[in-house]
Amino acid sequence: MTQQPETPTSAGADSSADAGDVDTLAVAVAELRPALEAILMVSDEPLSTVRLASVVGHPVDEVEGALGALAAEYAEQGRGFDLRSVAGGWRFYSRPEFAGVVESFVLDGQQARLTQAALETLSVVAYKQPVSRARVSAIRGVNVDGVMRTLLTRGLVEEAGQDEQSGANLYRTSSYFLERIGITSLEELPELAPYLPDMDDLEDELASVASLDTPAAEAAPTVPDAPHHSAHHSPHSGSGTEPDGGTEVS
């Protein structure tokens, strides 16, 4: 008689299935809050609730509740950090009252940071987006190609399609920009009006720029008896080009 090969017993199959279940549930049976803290501690970007739920193996609503409870707990205990929902995800941030200490630590020995020109260009993009390079250059009065390349390289600005009329590339701020300044959406940007110059100062600045753009041969003759006013030249006025690509060395 030919002996049939043995087939796996049901008990063996059940053991294999049980082993697989143990491996699958190994994370899920872990305590939820410590697991979330450990993941958020090593993440270098905001993590969505859905992604966190898939990692820890708990339902999304439970994860959402645990994150909210952790955030409230940290605030109540006066920790040196907060857990915030920013740019569509959760991440740890240092508390505002310790900004001076953190800034001193972070900037100590830092070699490169954005120049004033780059910050001004980034502000124009933030408030005018989507906007073309030509439009940014017109607003700032200088060629901003080098600075825009720096902002693109650092991930603070990204392409946002093309202008229908001119075909020029349009740019907008990125989610990394929101993350860096600690807001959830562009609606949280401060109102621009309080920071605008007075009309008298603006008229003087425009007159100064106009006089600099006027060819010498066409300039009006100076009246000898008229009081002399020295023209103020803004470092970011005229049709020049930024002296650098938007990065300065400390």
TrEMBL record:
Residues 206-250 are annotated as: Disordered. Gene3D superfamilies: Winged helix-like DNA-binding domain superfamily/Winged helix DNA-binding domain (1.10.10.10). InterPro entries: ScpB_csome_segregation, WH-like_DNA-bd_sf, WH_DNA-bd_sf. Pfam families: SMC_ScpB (PF04079). GO terms for biological process: cell division; chromosome separation. Transmembrane segments: none annotated. Keywords: Cell cycle, Cell division, Chromosome partition, Cytoplasm. It comes from the Bacteria. This is Segregation and condensation protein B. The keyword Transport does not apply.
